[in-house]
Amino acid sequence: MNFLGHSMISIEIDEKTDRKTLYGNFTGDFYKGTLEKINLTDELKEGIVLHRIIDDISDRENNFLSDLLREKFGIFKGIVSDMFVDHFLSKNFYRIFNENINDIETKILYNVNQYEKYFPEKFERTLSWISSEKILSGYANIDILERAFYGLSKRVKKGEILNSAIKELKKNYGIFEENSVKEFEYVKNESINKFLDKY
């Protein structure tokens, strides 16, 4: 899952345990290497640990979307799966979380911006795009999702295949919707348990 899915798992943990995982989880893809070499407080590093736990679980072979994506997208199936999950979380947000997505989007971005002094290289530009385009709530919109795939296709080596993701989504929309929500729930429960076992 992408920024929205990661954020919602952090929000659940942070509200239940008074932790601060949201920043590190949201920015996790921008922090590389071992935790010891990352310039963050131990409290904020917990979010990066959570991010990596979520990614490991999402990348498992029996991801609920894998069978639908493997043949067409190969090594890019994980990227497509992540984006599809965020699309359906955004689309069904109130039903899944019983919250207004615009309020939660504001809350997430406010929280992330509190740690501006720690922003890794290249993250500021990404955050500016996410904020100005209202991407977290915008993921529900197929046109915005298609633009996001197009942008990714330009940044990933041999990523042109990502431009056909929306066509695939439309062909099996109902199945993707059901499996994406199922995938999120599975990853959320597994990652929260694994994270809390660690801390």
UniProtKB/TrEMBL annotation:
Gene Ontology terms: biological process: fatty acid biosynthetic process
GO MF annotation terms: [acyl-carrier-protein] phosphodiesterase activity
Record keywords, A-Z: Hydrolase, Lipid biosynthesis, Lipid metabolism
InterPro entries: ACP_PD
Keyword set includes Lipid metabolism: yes
Highest taxon in the source lineage: Bacteria
The protein, known as: Acyl carrier protein phosphodiesterase
Taxonomic lineage of the native organism: Bacteria, Fusobacteriati, Fusobacteriota, Fusobacteriia, Fusobacteriales
